[in-house]
Amino acid sequence: MAELQEFTANILARKEEELSLLLEKATADEKARLEAGLMAISEKERAEKAKLDSKFALETATALQGIDNKSRNTILSNRQEQLRSLFDKAYQTMANWDSQTFNGFLQGVLEQLDKSKHYRLQLGEQSQHDLNLPSHVSLDSESIPNEAGFVLEADGVRYNYLFRALLTDLTQDMMGRLSRQLG
């Protein structure tokens, strides 16, 4: 009987050892599975955080760019309005030149032209002045309605010195420069 008890005790000891090994393995497997799950959750959280950080950075950059654009456009609009106002005042000043000032401007233009050609001078309606014209320039009796300044014509080519046109060209050039400076 002692042998039977010893045999039974050996079987029980082996079974306990097997169960103990199975329990250790199951515990280790469960611990590994739990760690892998925690690692996956942690990685997912990092990915979500990175995605949110990226989205926030993009939204912030977009908002800042929008603010910069609006600010630049406001500044440009204000400067363009100031420039228009300045050129409107310049036009009024030029349109109201006295005969001496107008003649000085006209003579400056005529000095740059080819004196071997004959030019026809047509004055703007608002620029009717007494003129001292050289022999190669004749005055057209018809004026240009609602304009200040003049047009010279020679050989079918018209040279436009109407003040509004001169200032419009200058305004567009200045606004282009201003836009590039602010861009």
Could you please describe the fold and organization of this structure?
- Helix content is 69%, strand content 11%.
- The chain has 183 residues and is α+β, with helices and mostly antiparallel strands.
- The chain has a domain at 97-182.
- The longest helix has 94 residues, at 2-95.
Keywords:
single chain; 183 residues; alpha+beta; 3 helices
Query: Major beta sheet, specifics?
Result: 4 strands, mixed
User: Radius of gyration over alpha carbons?
Assistant: 46 Å
Mean residue pLDDT: 89
Order of strands, widest sheet: 2-1-3-4
Helix content: 55-70%
Which structural class do the helices and strands define? alpha+beta
Which word captures the global form?
rod-shaped
Q: Treating each run of at least 4 consecutive H or I residues as one helix, how many helices?
A: 3
**Distance between the terminal alpha carbons, to the nearest Å?**
105 Å
**Residue ranges: pLDDT <50 for 5 or more in a row?**
none
Number of strands: 4
Q: Strand percentage, roughly?
A: 5-15%
Quick gist of this model?
It contains three helices and four strands; from the N terminus they run ααββββα. The protein is an alpha+beta fold and 183 residues long.
Spell out the blueprint of helices and strands:
Elements: H1 2-95, H2 99-110, E1 119-123, E2 137-139, E3 149-154, E4 157-162, H3 163-182
Parallel strand pairs: 1-2
Antiparallel strand pairs: 1-3, 3-4
Helix pairs in contact: 1-3
